[in-house]
Automatic annotation (TrEMBL):
Domain of life, source organism: Eukaryota
Bias-annotated ranges (Basic and acidic residues): 75-98
Protein name: Jg15724 protein
Region (Disordered): 75-105
Source species: Pararge aegeria aegeria
Length: 105
């Protein structure tokens, strides 16, 4: 990630721009700076989590279990919302089923 200020055509100063490893430039307003800071922290955190998962089988199993529980709870909450408001119902899968919820929740 690089950043830099640039002068506009009329000599006025443009907002600072950040280059986030993409072909797009992002203006650095105060909310933009916070977003870029958060994205960079998440990128570093994700690298750490992946490294731990690859280093130890126990860490891999812990992350997989965590993700399965989170997804099951998310899907259960969605089904509860669908029951409460039938207009929110999503189409069923081709086999007519939804993903089962693990019983240990």
């Amino acid at each position: 990630m690089t950043s830099g200020g640039q002068l506009g055509a009329a000599g006025g100063k443009r907002p600072m721009t950040v280059y986030c490893e993409t072909p797009y430039k992002r203006p650095m307003s105060s909310s933009g700076r916070r977003l870029v800071d958060m994205m960079m922290r998440l990128k570093n955190y994700a690298s750490t989590v992946v490294a731990a998962m690859l280093a130890e089988d126990e860490a891999w199993i812990a992350m997989v279990t965590f993700c399965e529980i989170v997804m099951a709870k998310k899907e259960a909450a969605e089904r509860d919302r669908e029951r409460a408001d039938p207009s929110r119902r999503r189409p069923r899968r081709a086999d007519g089923n939804h993903r089962p919820i693990p019983s240990d929740l």
